[in-house]
Design a protein that fits this description.
With 240 residues, the protein is an alpha+beta fold. The protein is built from eleven helices and five strands; from the N terminus they run ααββααβααββααααα. A five-stranded antiparallel β-sheet has the order 2-1-5-4-3, with helices on both faces.
Length: 240
């Protein structure tokens, strides 16, 4: 299994166990870092209101929402007319209007110069965009076809989970006592994975896996990790 395969599997596992904004931000943030980007941003144009999740600097994220930059953002504009993921920078977007030039000048102050975006279509006019962004060091030429194909799938998975859990409230894990990582470690323990194998799958150290499993065992009042797995399965925290 390639590094790219492991990256995608960890991302999907993280989405499965995410139940709040922190969990979703963490999943996308790790994906961005592993693919060589600095930030991520998700814009969901669905009722009742625009849904924004991102790891951008707080001041830029706040300015974006307050100034309604989604109305002039050329990346959003291109995403609305595209069917596939695309890479972008100021040059390839063909910035024309004065408002868009000012927008990119403001973004550049925060080091945002280029990225890759996945357009996502929903029924009845719903639309979303999933973006990974970087600075000038994030060369467009370093994103081969297999990365862009994986990013396309990642964006679709992300939107499906965010829309269902955060916007529609279909979240069976909302009241679970365990963290996202604790559930992931228990899931792989239930599948017979040893701690070093789980560490490789999740891209963390074996010591960190031990830490999460011990926390889960304590929270579930179990004597052993095996008992914690059984208890988690019985409660519906992980799939048995």
């Amino acid at each position: 299994m390639t590094v790219l395969d492991l990256t995608f599997r960890d991302f999907v596992d993280a989405l499965e166990t995410a139940h709040d904004e922190m969990g979703f931000k963490g999943a996308a943030d790790r994906l961005a870092a592993r693919l060589g980007y600095r930030w991520f941003a998700y814009l969901g144009f669905s009722e009742p209101a625009l849904k924004v999740l991102s790891s951008y600097p707080n001041s830029w994220a706040q300015q974006y929402v307050e100034q309604r930059y989604e109305d002039i953002d050329p990346v959003v504009g291109l995403a609305r007319s595209s069917q596939r993921s695309f890479q972008w920078d100021r040059r390839t977007l063909g910035i024309a209007s004065a408002a868009q030039q000012r927008f990119f000048a403001e973004a550049a102050k925060f080091g945002i110069h280029c990225g890759a975006t996945v357009p996502i279509r929903g029924g009845f006019g719903r639309f979303a965009a999933f973006t990974l962004a970087g600075n000038r060091d994030a060369s467009l030429e370093q994103r081969p076809t297999e990365v862009m194909d994986m990013l396309q799938l990642a964006g679709l998975y992300y939107h499906a989970h965010v829309y269902a859990k955060l916007q529609l409230g279909l979240n069976r894990l909302a009241d679970m006592p365990l963290t996202q990582r604790e559930r992931q470690c228990l899931f792989w323990a239930a599948r017979g994975k040893k701690m070093p194998e789980t560490a490789q799958i999740l891209g963390i150290s074996t010591r960190t896996v031990v830490f999460h499993l011990e926390n889960a065992r304590s929270k579930l009042s179990a004597s052993t990790v095996a008992q914690a797995v059984v208890e988690a399965a019985n409660r519906g925290i992980i799939l048995s």
